[in-house]
Structures are given as structure tokens and as C-alpha cells.
Design goal:
Blueprint (H helix, E strand, L loop, with lengths): L1 H17 L14 H9 L1 E6 L8 E2 L5 E2 L1 H13 L2 E6 L2 H10 L4 E2 L7 H6 L14 E2 L2 H6 L6 E2 L2
Parallel strand pairs: 1-4, 1-5, 6-7
Antiparallel strand pairs: 2-3
Length: 152
């Protein structure tokens, strides 16, 4: 588990070094403008939606918690900077990244072709293995799903 967590942190930092948050912006000449900006500021600005339990959710005190927050915390600690967690409605996360108001998104976002045109995805950091399960294949056919696991 520690090895996987370390690999994940290295991959996320590699994404920042590559400038994943700067894909559509013109910046000063640098080998890693996003990393330069984060280090000079001393903080990593991370966008989360706060409404996708258990990955990220709000407490009664409106504090965002969950696995996404834990991952963002590990990345900031590995970089030696402060974490600035920003709660942004899901639809506003990519625009915030594109505008440079956040450095990265850690909010349970699925990779799609359209999103890949707007931002660089490091890759999945969590695979749940969730699936539909039914006792009869006829029930699965009624639900119009092509791939169900059935137990007859």
C-alpha cells in the first residue's frame, strides 16, 4: 500500500511538472511553469466538488473530507507546500483549472475524450470494481444494460 501511494504521488507531481494545468495558457518560458508557480507561491491549489461521497463530501461544519482530500494532502506534503483546498461545483472544476485559479483537480472525475482535450489526466487513482448484480438475467435485460453479472 505504501509503495502504491508513493507511486501515485510521484505520478501526480510528474503531471504538475509537465504543466497539466497550463495546457491552454501562455506562460513564461519554463520547463515546468505549473511547478514554478506552486513553489513560488508555497501552496498547491486543488479543486474538489465536495459532493461525491465517499471520495469527497461535506461534514456538518462544511469541511470537505474523503479520499480525494487525503490524496491532495499527500501530494502537497510530498511537494513541501501548503494545501489550499477549494470547493467548486463539479461543472466549474475544468474552467477553474483552465483559467489557472486552481493547479489541479482531485474530485473523482472520469476521463472522457472531451475532458482529455481540456486537461491532462494522470490516470485513474481509484478503481472500485462496482458492478450490477442480479439473480436473473431476464431482469438485467429489462434494465437495458448490455453487461450484467448474473447468478442464476
Amino acid at each position: 500500500m505504501k509503495k502504491a501511494r508513493g507511486l501515485f504521488v510521484v505520478l501526480m507531481i510528474a503531471c504538475l511538472l509537465a504543466g497539466c494545468g497550463e495546457m491552454n495558457q501562455t506562460t513564461k518560458a519554463s520547463s515546468s511553469p505549473v511547478m514554478d508557480r506552486i513553489v513560488s507561491r508555497g501552496e498547491l491549489r486543488v479543486g474538489v466538488s465536495g459532493d461525491m461521497p465517499p471520495m469527497n463530501l461535506l461534514t456538518q461544519e462544511d469541511k470537505v473530507i474523503g479520499m480525494d482530500v487525503d490524496v491532495a494532502t499527500m501530494i502537497a506534503e510530498a511537494m513541501g507546500v501548503k494545501l489550499n483546498l477549494q470547493r467548486i461545483d463539479f461543472g466549474g472544476l475544468l474552467p477553474a483549472l483552465e483559467s489557472g485559479s486552481i493547479d489541479m483537480i482531485v474530485s473523482n472525475m472520469t476521463m472522457t475524450p472531451d475532458r482529455n482535450l481540456k486537461a491532462a489526466f494522470v490516470g485513474p487513482y481509484f478503481t472500485s470494481g462496482k458492478a450490477f448484480l442480479t439473480k436473473r438475467s431476464s431482469i438485467a435485460q429489462l434494465l437495458f444494460f448490455d453487461h450484467f453479472y448474473t447468478m442464476d
